[in-house]
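# step 3/5: fold
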Amino acid sequence: MALMVDNRALHAADKERMNVLFIAVDDLRTEASVFGNKYIHSPNLERIAKMGVTFNRAYCQQAVCSPSRSSLLTGTRPDTTKVWDLETHFRKALPDVVTLPQLFKNNGYFVQGMGKLYHGSLDDPQSWSVPWTNPRKEIEVYALPASRPGADAKGVKANKKAKGAAFESADVPDNKFHDGVLAEMAIKALQSSAAKKEPFWLGVGFIKPHLPFVAPKKYWDLYDPAKIDLAPNPFKPKGAPDYAFASGGELSAYAGIPNGPIPDELARKLKHGYYASISYMDAQLGKVLDELDRLKLTDKTIIILWGDHGWKLGEHGAWCKHSNVENDTNAPLLIAAPGMK
């Protein structure tokens, strides 16, 4: 459906060609307010939904970052891209494939990408009119020294590969972290694009709510920990083989996270951090949408917000993604276009 709406922009008459703002979000499960969980504070996701359509039954091809992103941006399945992991580039199997942004570039659009669109460092230079950019490398993952790798001796001893804390709440500005800086970059890109004559396709890839659940304190303060419920179904489906569920190794790589079951108090803290990370990302999204309004571009722009996959928060006794259960494969998709009803 996203490709169909993009196609509408591509083949409109030149004077009517619409811009495209493509927003990718990492590890966002379909649990924000726009998907029915009103406890989560995400007014800007709701803002897009009110302008267009929310797809409640959108699914990813594979609940892993790179396979899902490669699939969507090439319009092919993982069996075609040969991307099932986080290291393989789709161009190894498909050297001549035309990606979604590349299609727009080939048809007269100014195409720019920033943040996490393809996975990590697996950029695709052929997709862009100008080189892909990412927030400056010196941005810290954590604000507090105690959260950084090696600070929690107990956690590091339990897991020598510990990355640092799984969550952090610090009283810092939004641009202390990646997504706050990314929003500032996107605003500058919109301002620059508004001055150009050709239509634009701008891809903006937010990394939250991906682990670690790090967000400024004001977003944690939106939630009362006592009102955060644990997963209603912590049981594996009857008859499901053990290999159908990933071990949660992505989470247990962080300091202080046990390799076995997650205690209730810790589970509630992790969910609190996940919700805070959603609200932080949502606020950065709002800044980009505000600038689109200020530049009077909203009525000339198709907005697509897409998530690469879902995430388990204790459902089926498991955490993270990497499985084929509904929590992992059901992915966010919102589309808003001028005149859309």
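# step 4/5: annotate
The CA atoms of residues 139 and 176 lie 7 Å apart.
# step 5/5: archive (pending)
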